[in-house]
Amino acid sequence: QVQLVESGGGLVQAGGSLRLSCAASGRTVSIYRMGWFRRTPGKEREFVANIIWRDDRTYYAESVKGRFTISRDNVKNMVYLQMNSLKPEDTAVYYCAADRNGGSIDWWGQGTQVTVSS
Fold it and tell me: How far apart are CA 4 and CA 111, in angstroms?
């Protein structure tokens, strides 16, 4: 089993920045990929970004390309999401997620709220 704990959410003005962190613990050798999803009320949870654990390849949703950067620290088993030029439409609960083979998500964090005021 893998446990994921997010931190770093909060309230920021439009145009500002936040950095989210996700700490992985447990059987982290099982992780193939880690990333971030987000959900706003009344909408489906949507993909934001992810990173392949073994080679650091990254992928982003079109809506965040050029503004968000995902990275990881393999010594600390941490993944980060640097969010710049934030917009009100980025307001959501952000979830850290991981999977073991590139398929469906196997583990989820509890979520952290990000609110961007206009």
Answer: 9
Enumerate the β-bridge partners of residue 60.
Answer: 49
Secondary structure tally for the chain: helices H, strands E: 0, 11
Give the model confidence (pLDDT) of 60-80 as tens digits.
999 999 999 999 998 999 999
- Cβ contact 79:96 at 8 Å: yes
Residue type (1 letter), 111: G
The pLDDT score that the predictor gives to residue 55 is: 92
Q: Do residues 32 and 24 touch, judged by C-beta distance below 8 A?
A: no
Distance CA 102, CA 55 (A): 13
What tokens were used for 89? 């439409």
pLDDT band at 9 (very low <50, low <70, confident <90, very high): very high
Token pair in block for residue 12: 């920021």
